[in-house]
Amino acid sequence: MDNKQWLEYYVRSVIALAAVVLGLCVATMSFAQLDLWFFLLAAVTIFLSARVEIQIPHSGGGHITVSDTFIFLTMLLYGGGPATVLAAAESAYSSFRFNIRMKEVVFNSAQMLTSTFLTAKVMSLIFGPPEALPRSGNLGVFLSAICIMAVVQYLANSWLAAVYTAFKRGQGVAQTWSRYYLWSSITHLAGASAAGLISRVVVRFGFSYVLLTAPIIVIVYLTYRTYLKSVETSAAQAEQAERERMREHYAQMEKLSALGELASGVAHNFNNTLTGILARAQLMLDAKDMKDVRRGLRIIIQTAEDGAKTVKRIQDFARQRRDQDFVRIDVDQLMLEVAEITRPRWKDHAEAANVHIRLVRQIGSNSVIMGDAGELREVLVNMVFNAVDAMPDGGTLTLSTQDAGEEVVMTVADTGTGMTEEVRSRIFDPFFTTKGKAGMGLGLSVSYGIIRRHEGSVEVESEVGRGTTFRMTFPAVGESDTQRINDTGPLLAARADGTLRILVVDDEDYVRELLADILEREGCEVSLAGEGREALRLFDSAAYDAVFTDVGLPGMSGWEVARAVRERDEQVALAVITGWGDTVTPEEQSEAQADWIVPKPFTVERIAGLVGEISARKAAAHHAVG
Questions:
Q1: Mean pLDDT across the chain
Q2: Sequence-separated (6 or more) residues with CB below 8 Å from residue 197
Q3: Between vectors from CA 581 to CA 256 and to CA 520, what angle results, nearest 5°?
Q4: Which of 384, 599, 364, 361 is nearest to 487 (CA)?
Q5: Cα–Cα distance, 100 to 154 (Å, whole number)
Q6: Strand, coil or helix: what is 88?
Q7: Least reliable range by pLDDT among 388-392, 543-547, 550-554
Q8: CATH 1.10.1760.20 occupies which residues in the chain?
């Protein structure tokens, strides 16, 4: 059974038990002993004491009253039966006052009736009739009875309530009891003590002296209120500390998640880097001309430096702030770094999934701000990731910087799905997310705090179906003397004479050039293309024996290039060279009809071996024709 079914079964069981108990009490109760004072006490208990209430902290509207004091007093003066019936009546009236549903009214009454009956029975078994205790001359026995009465009533009542709350909220019973009911033990002890004192006064001096004990009731009430206020304050402080701890925990998880995605893309970039170093070094071993050796060494050095820069970018993003003073930050350089840090997400990951995102960099500020570069990178990376998520079918990602008087504006814009006005108004709320279980709803909340810490502001413009723009404004403190980095277009190497004609398609300059050097050394004629459409134009303009293509290409993916090539020529040799080799499935290879999947980093021997296989295939085809 689920929690709802268990709850229904539990409620019915307690109500049924209470009905039996009520019948037993009425059958065995001596109505002759119920005098006018009893009915006056009952009226005060039901109609007055229930109004002296204090709200239970974090119980969803639960209350506690001083009526327990009068129920204990009734038990000590008139016995367990009258006290049990009075407890049921008082609970039902209190529940009605708090607008509780009828089913819960009946259950609350049954719960109070059952716990009071159990308390009276335990008292009778240990000490005899409870109503005889106030007349006892043994003060030690009387005080022991008062303590036991409070403990039994507390345990029975609180556990009956805890089981109900646990089923209702889907929590553990022990956890529910300790969180919502453990604190109420002192209130039962205070009520029992007050009842014990009043009962001794009544027995000795008569009911008319009960008015003299009114200050005791006031003290009990103030004890309840002060204690509950203290509990509520402590609980609020604990919850605030827990919320802050959870906020920091989830914020760190958000950052680790982003680092995981970056690391995955960095693995792809490093495969390219290692390819450039490994294969280039192998070529240099066979070089006879020192000019070729020096050229190879320069390429290796440049490739290694590029790899070091990649490591530094990830370290900059992962670095934890040490509460250092703000330093001067070149916003143009910062935006360019963010573009490179996030390249694996908006380029490599996206293109591997056949999603094409065009990056537009409009770097035009040349200003400096004061801040923590690591924190601001975290903000911008988070916004870029959100922009990529908002463009599942591709689009344009724009990163821009510009001066606006004495301020500098940094903008992250996309042409994605956009947001409704309701979503836009809540994006900076903690734990608000539109990503379901894939998001924690803290990325933008943390980002907002960082922006405010840098004395900045952020504006969000969004339209459903048109995209979103985040515009951050910071106070400028001067101009940068850093030379701006310009984008470089794809480099096309010249062709050389050779037996085989091979088309190489890769958007990384040094990978294209490396493949060209290896293939030309093997006597091949090589054509180079930096993206898919250019490759198809070259393929349509000449006859090729083989095509070597990368998977992650701008405009169209390597798989699309492979399929387009295969549609044009079923016999051409086709090799897919990729940094995602371990994730390429046999289905993808079969669909593209690729002859070889070559993971990066590759070796000179591997590429030379492919040339040998292509030559052998071509020779066999000529022999078959002949």
A1: 78
A2: 213, 216
A3: 125
A4: 361
A5: 22
A6: helix
A7: 550-554
A8: 3-205
Compute the distance between CA of residue 18 and CA of residue 129 in angstroms, rounded to an integer.
Answer: 21
Rounded (10°) angle between helices 443-453 and 373-389: 140
Neighbours of 510 (CB within 10 A): 20
Whether a cis peptide bond, with omega within 30° of 0, leads into 57 is: no
Question: Does position 118 have pLDDT exceeding 90, yes or no?
Answer: yes
Instruction: Give the β-pairing of 407-414 and 367-371.
Output: unpaired
Contacts of 307 (CB under 8 A, 6+ apart): 269, 270, 273
Distances in Å between the alpha carbon of 338 and those of 170, 401, 412, 469? 45, 12, 11, 17
Q: H or E element: which one contains 464?
A: none
Band of residue 124 on the pLDDT scale cut at 50, 70, 90:
very high
Q: What mean pLDDT comes out for the span 15-31?
A: 86
**Planar angle of CA 514, 519, 522, nearest 5 degrees:** 135
Closest C-alpha to 349, from 376, 384, 307: 384
Amino acid making up residue 178:
S
Q: Helical H runs in 489-573?
A: 509-521, 532-541, 558-568
First to last CA, the chain: 79
Adjacent-strand bridge partners of 414: 397, 468
Strands 357-364 and 395-404, bridge-based pairing? parallel
Contact 120, 80 (CB under 8 A): yes
Stretch(es) of the chain classified as CATH 3.30.565.10: 262-479
**Given a cut of 50, is residue 553 above it in pLDDT?**
yes
CATH superfamily of domain region 262-479: Histidine kinase-like ATPase, C-terminal domain (3.30.565.10)
Q: Which CATH class is domain 3-205?
A: mainly alpha
Q: Closest Cα partner for 357 from 400, 431, 416, 303?
A: 416
What type of residue is 418? G
Q: Which residue has better confidence, 64 or 174? A: 174
Q: Are 600 and 584 in contact (CB under 8 A)?
A: no
To which residue do tokens 């192998």 refer? 282
Among 312, 334, 333, which residue's Cα sits nearest to residue 266?
312
CATH 3.40.50.150 for domain 501-625: no
- 22 contacts: CB under 8 Å, gap ≥ 6: 84, 85, 88, 113
Q: How far apart are CA 359 and CA 382, in angstroms?
A: 16
461 pairs with which residues across the strands?
469
* DSSP-based three-state secondary structure for 427: coil
| Pairing of the two strands 367-371 and 467-479 | antiparallel
Residue ranges of the chain assigned to CATH 3.40.50.2300: 501-625
**What does pTM read for this prediction?**
0.39
pLDDT at 17 over 70: yes
The single-letter code of the amino acid at 468 is: T
Residue 111 tokens read as 């719960």
Contacts of residues 514-517 at CB distance under 8 Å and 24 or more positions apart, as own/partner, are 514/275, 514/276, 514/279, 514/280, 515/548, 515/577, 515/607, 517/280, 517/283
Alpha carbon distance 107, 12 (integer Å): 8
Confidence at residue 295, expressed as pLDDT on a 0 to 100 scale = 76
pLDDT of residue 408: 94
Measuring CA to CA, how many Å separate 168 from each of 165, 173, 309?
Answer: 5, 11, 56
